[in-house]
Model the fold of this input.
Amino acid sequence: MFQSLSEKLENAFRKFKSKGKLTESDIKAGMREIKLALLEADVNFKVVKDFISTVSERAVGTEVLESLLPAQQIVKIVNEELTNLMGGSQSKLTISSKPPTVVMMVGLQGAGKTTHAGKLAGLYKKQGKNPLLVACDIYRPAAIKQLQVVGEKLGIPVFTLGDKVSPVKIAAEGLKYANQKGYDMVFIDTAGRLHIDEALMQELQNIKSEVCPTEILLTVDAMIGQDAVNVAKTFDELLDVTGVILTKLDGDTRGGAALSIRQVTGKTIKFIGVGEKLDAIEPFYPDRMASRILGMGDVLSLIEKAEQAYDDKKAMELEKKIRESTFTLDDYLEQFDQLKGMGNLESIMGMMPGVKPGALKDAKINEKALAHMEAIIKSMTPREREKPDILNASRKKRIALGSGTTVEEVNKLIRQFEQTRTLMKQFSDPKKLAKMSKRGKLKMPF
Done:
C-alpha cells in the first residue's frame, strides 16, 4: 500500500540527506517535492497546503537548522505531522455499556460493506464477543445470501426476514431478536447505491431513528482516492457517521483517501481492509501507518500478527525442541502453516523497518510449492519425518512417487530442512549467535 507515495517521499528525503547542514532554501526545495508527492497521491489540495505550511514552519526552526542530523529531524517532523493528519491516535469502536452494541454499516455499492460487516463481526468474535449479523439490504440481488455465506464461514448467525419486508422493520426485529437471544453486538448491513440519492439516505435515516446505533461506520473504497473523501463528507452531513472503514487499502498505491478523510470530514478511520480473506481487517493506527508510509516499518502490527498466528503453547514446545535439537519435519511443516496464517510475504515484509516500498511487490508465499512440500512430508513414515537421516535413495524414490513429485524436489526439501535446523540451533545459543553475527557468518537458508 502507498507504494508510489513512499517512493516519492524517499526521493525527497534523499536530497536532505546529501547535505551536512541545511539552509532555508534547501528546506523550501525539499518541501516543494513533498508537496508534489502528496498532490500526485491524490491528497486533498487544502490538506496538502496546510500540511506543508506546518512542516515548513517547524523545519526552519532551531530543531532542524542547528541539529547535527538535520535530515533525520525533518523525517521525524514529517512522521509526526502525517500521524496528526490521520487522527493522531487510534480511534476505537465504542462498546455500549448496556448490550447490545449496535453497529450500522453504511456506504455505496461496491465498497465491500457486506463483506466488512462480516469481517468486523469476526474480529470481535475472536475477542470474546457474541455478534449477530442483520441483513437489511433487500435490493441488491443475492446480498442476503452473500451475508449468509460470510456468516457461515465465520460461524456467526445472520438474522433475515427475506427481501419482501422493509429494511427498517428488519433492523428493528433484528435488534429485538439480539436482546432475546443474548447477542452483545449487532452488525446491520444496509443497502448501498452506485451513487448517493434521496431515497437511499432517507431509508438509512429511518433505520438510524429506529435502532439508535452505537456506531455508524461508513465503508469507503480507498482506491477511488479523492472521491472517497467526497462520499464521506456527504454521508456524514446526512447521517453523522462515527467512523470510517477504508477498504481495499492493500491495492491503494497512492494513499489520498487515508491522508485526507480525517482532515476534511473530522471523522476518524477506525478500521482498514487489507485483503480479500475474512480476517484481512485491522484497527487503524495513524502512527503505525505514518511509519509504513515513510519506510520505517510497523513492528507492533507485525508482532500482533505473529501473536495471532502462533499458539503460545506450541511456541514453547518449539523452543524446547530447538534447544534439545529434536526439531522434526512435522514441526517444519507446522511452522509454514502458521506463517501462511499471517498473510502474504509482501504484507509481512512491508511491516519490517528498512524494507523499501515495492521491493517485494512480486513476493508471495508460493501456495503450490507449499502444497508439494506438504505432500512430500506426508508421504513419509512417522520415523522418516522424525529422522530424515535414514532417507536413502529407494526411500526417496518411494516418497517422490507417493507425493507426485520428483526425487530432486525431495532432496531440495531435505536440504532446506537441514539448513533451517542448523540456523535454529544457532539462534538457540546466544553466545554462538553473537560470535557468528560479529564475524558476518550468519546466513539465512532461503
User: Anything to note?
Assistant: The first strand starts at residue 101 and ends at 107.
